[in-house]
Amino acid sequence: MIKGDKILKIKIATDDSQSMAQDGASILRSLQNKSIPLLDLIVRESIQNSLDAGIDGIGKTRVDFHFGDFDADNLARHLEGVSDELLSNYCNKTKFLAISDKNTFGLTGAVSGDSHDDLVNSNFHKLVFGIGKNQEKEGAGGSWGLGKTSFFRVGNGIVIYYTRIKTADSYEERLIGSLIENNKLEDRLLPKSNRGIAWWGEEGSNNQILPITDTDKIKEILNLFNLKPYQANETGTTILIPFLREDISDLQNNGSSYYWTNNLESSIKLSILRWYFPRLMNMIYRNHFNSNMLVCSVNEETINVESEVIFNIFQKLYNSALLGYSMADKIVVHPIKLSRKACEDTNKPLGFIAYIEASEEDLEMCPPNNCPSPLAYLGKSSLTEASNEIKIFSYCRQPGMIVEYDSDNSWLPSSKILEDKRMLISIFVPVSKEKLSSRFYPNSPTIESYLRSIENADHANWLDENGFTLIKRLKGGIRNSILTDFEENELSETGTETSRLSKVLGKFLLPPTGYGKNSSLDINSENRQSRNAGLKCSLSISSVNIVDGMKVILKVKVRVPKNHKAKVKLLLETQDGHIDYNKWHADFEDIPYPFSITSVKDLNDSYFKNLNDFINQGEFVLPLVDQDIRTELEIIVLKNSNQYRPTMIITQ
Questions:
Q1: Distance separating alpha carbons of residues 513 and 314, to the nearest angstrom
Q2: For 589-609, what is the mean pLDDT?
Q3: pLDDT value for 235
Q4: How far apart are CA 154 and CA 126, in angstroms?
Q5: Could you say which DSSP state residue 104 is in?
Q6: Is the pLDDT of residue 21 over 80?
Q7: R_g over Cα of the chain
Q8: Superkingdom of this entry's organism (predicted)?
Q9: How far apart are CA 593 and CA 637, in angstroms?
Q10: Following DSSP, what letter does each residue of 337-400 receive, concatenated?
């Protein structure tokens, strides 16, 4: 090298007042996601690009993050057109971030061309020069370009791309630089450019800029950062971001003081876990999709979900939803089906919801571990935690990147359903290859293709297109599925005395063993504990008087808290769960409900008057009273069928 000779020649984007081309300021604004920290955006975008470029059949895609210092002067001398500005703004050691993948194809395709057709299939051209170019690979994360603006925002606007690809008979290395800066700033690197966009490489014909392919020159640039080139049969891409912003840590911590906000290394580690736990070192993912799992490291330390219990739980939930059945104790899994305008086969589920009601002990929030709340790990405000019970919902597509964490009950029941000091952790995973109705979704043959089409450029949520309601109805199905579980639990957990009543009723009202189709159904367990004990209504049996084969007189003690209405119900226990009068009437309109309450009387005659006026077939209401109620009721029950097992519960 001749001293002062610049390896990287510059091409500045033309300033054409009649062109509709964007300037740097508008491009940098194109992905201003204020809900996701900048480092998180970089992790999401870089890993997704690497996974989309993964070579099938290898088993894993590797992505390595490396932070370090470099001599700003040495790099500045190689960048034509901005050397003086860099030398005046930076001195001595300056920080950089390098994101390198392996087991990927690298940036393949043509590096130049005279027409659109020459470059339409070039991944190199799409990433370096394109904005918003769609990925065509099935199961890909989304679009090239818009997400990559995060690379330019974390530094001074300079990004260097280094890649190694396999050619027909050998390998080729490519290195090219790019600049997108805010052209409205006074201290910009290109003060004479009205667009703030440029590239560095080798000069080609017709004023085209080409990547450097000379391995010695490439090695000289990489040596400035102590980075090694790809070797042997390795292929991949390295995104090199020099001149990192000094306030980058402040952009991530949002005023918090958790350990992962203390330095860039910890922030990146946590971000990888936060967004990619579904695919991170996950053999179940690899086997299910026959696709590469993700292996990540930060400064040579491999990242896995075992390091943080919340993401270990999340990965078990993901695996359960992916396979459609529970993979661990306490995890509940349900299929989510929509009866119309959804799957081609309406009996097939759109996907599966998996959730767990986790205690503080499950989440290792107690001594000696003292882990923060799950909300902290997800970057959510602690105000949510202080004002409401914690319910967390997440969802993702086949690429294995979490689209969003919702803790505002947009997807989950908004009512209070949890015990004290318990949290609901959940995830929805679609059945990616399930076919959608061609009548209603002619442009989206599968669930995966529809969900991909409705994601924003930053893949941060799912929003139905105008005229479609799939996501709206999906939310309703998920809410109802979870709410039904907790309502049924509440019905079955009103106390051991309620369970005892169920047994007594079953003994005297059921027919002999073997009679009727449901006579052998199990009744509620006596061992389950009441939710929020002491706050709910309670009911216990005092005596049972069998008048004849069809009539039973019950004496029942009840407790109702002050200023609460209560409802006493007779339910049927079936293989499909509990059925009350309203559900029965809706499904079997012409068939009488098997049991009915014909009379209710307050034996103390001190709180409730004329309770018969509040009877509706298999249930009755205890009106609101401004004091705690403890009394005994006489209830007369008539049996109209021998085919079902009854249970009696009280709710408020």
A1: 45
A2: 81
A3: 98
A4: 21
A5: B
A6: no
A7: 32
A8: Bacteria
A9: 12
A10: --SSSSBSSTTS-SEEEEEEEEETTTTT-STTT-PPPHHHHTT--HHHHHHS--EEEEEE-TT-
Residue 608 banded pLDDT, cuts 50, 70, 90: confident
Amino acid at 441: Y
Burial label for 467, CB within 10 Å (0-12, 13-18, 19+), is exposed
As a whole number, mean pLDDT of residues 584-602 equals: 80
Cβ(567)–Cβ(537) under 8 Å? no
Confidence band for 147, pLDDT divided at 50, 70 and 90: low
Tokens found for residue 345: 């086969």
As a whole number of angstroms, the distance between CA 593 and CA 640 comes to: 7
User: 209-268, pLDDT tens digit by residue?
Assistant: 999 999 999 999 999 999 999 999 999 999 999 999 887 766 665 656 788 887 889 999
Token digits for 155? 């530094």
Spatial CB neighbours of 3, under 8 Å, sequence gap ≥ 6: none
- CA dihedral sign, ordered 619, 623, 626, 629: negative
Backbone angles phi, psi at 301, to 5 degrees: -100, 120
Architecture of the domain whose range is 38-107+136-276: 2-Layer Sandwich (3.30)
Q: Scanning the structure block, which residue is given the tokens 């007779």?
A: 570
Each domain of the chain, given as residue ranges in start order, spans 38-107+136-276, 304-490, 493-651
The single residue listed with the structure tokens 């975008």 is 45
Predicted pLDDT at 617:
76
State pLDDT tens for residues 551-565: 888 888 888 888 788
Question: How is residue 591 written in tokens?
Answer: 């068939």
pLDDT above 80: residue 529: no
Length of the chain counted residue by residue? 652
Task: Tell me if 615 sits within 8 A of 503, measured CB to CB.
Answer: no
- Predicted model pTM: 0.75
Mean pLDDT of the chain: 83
Distances in Å between the alpha carbon of 274 and those of 40, 251, 265, 285?
9, 17, 14, 17
